């Protein structure tokens, strides 16, 4: 895998678990523009959003920062997340990954941000 270029997205994020009866459409309408991701599975409804937009009814883990892989990335690429996750795991940094059509985001706790950036730089990745 070639080195990736990453940037630190602005703001702090929350990773939330919403109540079972939450309406995805209502949640999305309340969020407006900006970075957020809403995922429904048979077992849960999860949301990543700015900390100050976390719904009151959600169980939220706050204090996350997003490292954005500069894209767009070709769908044929392999090992993108692995090339980020491996050095972060070796450095003891836990992650929460979010992927979009064009790119990937790796969320790390703000308290581990400097460690994460150092580990990724040592692994050959670059920051803008």
Q: Could you characterize the architecture of this molecule?
A:
This protein has three helices and eight strands. Helix 2 crosses helix 3 (113-122). By secondary structure, it is of the alpha+beta class. Strands 1, 2, 3, 4, 5, 6, 7 and 8 form an eight-stranded mixed beta sheet that branches. The chain has helices spanning 24-31, 80-90, 113-122; strands spanning 5-8, 13-18, 37-40, 45-50, 59-69, 95-99, 104-109, 126-127.
Q: Gist?
A:
Helices cover 23% and strands 34% of the residues.
Question: Topology of this structure?
Answer:
Blueprint: E1 5-8, E2 13-18, H1 24-31, E3 37-40, E4 45-50, E5 59-69, H2 80-90, E6 95-99, E7 104-109, H3 113-122, E8 126-127
Parallel strand pairs: 1-8
Antiparallel strand pairs: 1-5, 2-4, 2-5, 3-4, 5-7, 6-7
Helix pairs in contact: 2-3
Q: Report the principal-axis shape.
A: globular
Low-confidence stretches: none
Order of helices and strands: EEHEEEHEEHE
Percentage of residues assigned to helices: 10-25%
Count up the helices: 3
Indicate the radius of gyration in whole angstroms: 15 Å
Oligomer: single chain
Average of per-residue pLDDT values: 94
Strand content: 25-35%
Task: Report the sheet with the most strands, covering strand number, pairing sense and barrel closure.
Answer: 8 strands, mixed
Overall strand count: 8
First-to-last CA distance: 19 Å
Which structural class best describes the helix and strand composition? alpha+beta
């Amino acid at each position: 895998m070639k080195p990736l270029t990453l940037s630190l997205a602005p703001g702090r994020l929350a990773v939330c678990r919403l109540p079972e009866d939450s309406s995805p459409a209502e949640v999305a309408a309340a969020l407006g523009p900006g970075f957020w991701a809403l995922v429904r599975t048979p077992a849960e409804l999860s949301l990543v959003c700015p900390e100050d937009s976390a719904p009151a009814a959600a169980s939220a883990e706050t204090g996350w920062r997003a490292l954005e892989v500069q894209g767009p990335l070709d769908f044929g690429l392999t090992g993108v997340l692995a090339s980020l996750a491996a050095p972060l795991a070796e450095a003891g940094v836990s992650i929460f990954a979010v992927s979009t059509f064009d790119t990937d985001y790796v969320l790390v706790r703000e308290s581990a941000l400097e460690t994460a950036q150092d580990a990724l730089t040592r692994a050959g990745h670059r920051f803008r």
